[in-house]
Specification:
CATH class: Alpha Beta
Largest sheet: 8 strands, antiparallel
Shape: elongated
Number of domains: 1
CATH architecture: Super Roll
Order of helices and strands: HEHHEEEEEEHEH
Strand content: 35-45%
Helix content: 10-25%
Number of strands: 8
Distance between the termini: 21 Å
């Protein structure tokens, strides 16, 4: 049984078990892979996971074409850029760009004792998840006043934290097979 990233993160690295032997442990994503390796994994799925629409009456906001601008290590943080489009009815249309950042947290699900080192063969799965949103730039010309950084942050706070996750199992496996411990 796979645990969601939010459930695993709430276990704080530890003892939440899906079965009597399956456990989760929080790990530093930058300790298991380079920023370039993490960027490759996150970039390969972020566009799919961060396409969203909001509608209220005849007003529509769409987030699309999300891409990774950068991943920072040693403090794991993902910088994302995306397109934002606003439409009202058929007459008003405008678009622009959005940049936001989020810490990146990783959780490994493994078979074994709670405090023992994790071996590569013990790994069942590993996920890295965006955990919070900080809007760093929003540029949408001629948008209504309510479509601002605060509104975008509130919208993204419902869409992103601990939901936008990426499979990093292979990175963890290679890290452990290379002689590193966890």
């Amino acid at each position: 049984m796979r645990l969601s990233c939010i459930a695993a993160l709430s276990a704080l690295g530890g003892l939440a078990a899906a079965s009597s032997q399956e456990r989760t442990r929080a790990v530093d994503p930058c300790a298991i892979a380079s920023a370039d390796q993490l960027r490759f994994v996150v970039a390969s799925g972020i566009g799919r996971r961060l396409s969203a629409s909001y509608a209220s009456g005849d007003e529509h906001v769409t987030l699309a074409h999300a891409d990774v601008a950068a991943i920072d290590c040693p403090a794991p943080r993902v910088q994302v850029r995306a397109d934002v489009r606003y439409e009202r009815g058929t007459a008003t249309r405008t678009s622009g760009g959005l940049r936001f950042a989020s810490p990146l947290a990783a959780v490994v699900t493994y078979q074994g004792a709670p405090n023992a080192p994790i071996r590569a063969d013990d790994v069942r799965s590993a996920s890295a998840c965006l955990t919070a949103v900080s809007v760093t730039a929003l540029e949408v010309r001629n948008a209504p006043s309510w479509l601002d950084d605060a509104w975008i942050k509130a919208w993204l706070d419902r869409l992103v934290p601990n939901v936008v996750c990426f499979d990093v199992t292979s990175l963890v496996y290679v890290h452990l097979k290379s002689g590193h411990t966890m």
